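User: Could you check the structure of this?
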Amino acid sequence: MALYVYDHGYRIQTPKEALFPKRGVDSVLKSRHTHRSADTEDKLHSDGEKFIIPGPGKPHTNHDAATLAYTAHEEGIETENESAQLTVSTIMVSPVHTIPSTVTVSTAWKRMLSLEISHLVVADEDKRPLGLISKADLVQAGTDSISLISEIYSKKLIAATPETLIQSVAINFIENDINSIPVVNNEDQVVGIVCRTDLLRLLVSGPHLERWV
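Assistant: Sure, the predicted C-alpha cells are below.
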C-alpha cells in the first residue's frame, strides 16, 4: 500500500512529491572499482582461470566444498529476504495518543512529559489526522506558552496504513527528513504511529531474533 497525504484531516490526491520535496540524503550509488590493485589482479589471473565469487545469477564455476557451501548460504539469505516483506503493522505503536488542536502548547508539553513520548498526533473528534506535533515544536514555541497548538503544527502530513511496507516508511523518513508517520485505517482514522526509534528497535532486535538465541 502507498503512503497517503492528508491536508486539514482530509486525504488528498496531490502527489506526495509535490507537497513534500526530498530533503534527505541522496540515494547511494554503486561505486565502481577504480583502485589500482584491480588491474594487478586481472594481470595475475590472465594466464589462468579466475576465481569467481558465487552469487545469484552466476554459474557455480568454483566447485570446491567451501565455495558451494558459501553459495548455498547466500542463496538462502536472498530467498529469506524476498519473503520477509514486513509491514507497518509489525512495528507500529497502537493505540496511539492523540490530542485535539484546541489545547495549549503548555498542555501538550505536560501531556508528552507524562506519557514519556516525543510526538503527538493532532486529531479531530472522528480521529482523522490533522497533523503531528513534536517536542521540538513545543520547545520552539515555548513550553509554558498558552497559545493553541493549532498555530504551530503543520496542516499537511504523510500517513501510512498497516499494510504499508516498512521499507517505504524508512525511505520517506530519509527523503523528507521526518521522524514519525501516523498510521490510518480505511476510514481515515488514526490507529497507530511509527517513529524512527521503532525502526531502530527493529534493526537491533530483528524480526527473527529467536533464530540466533
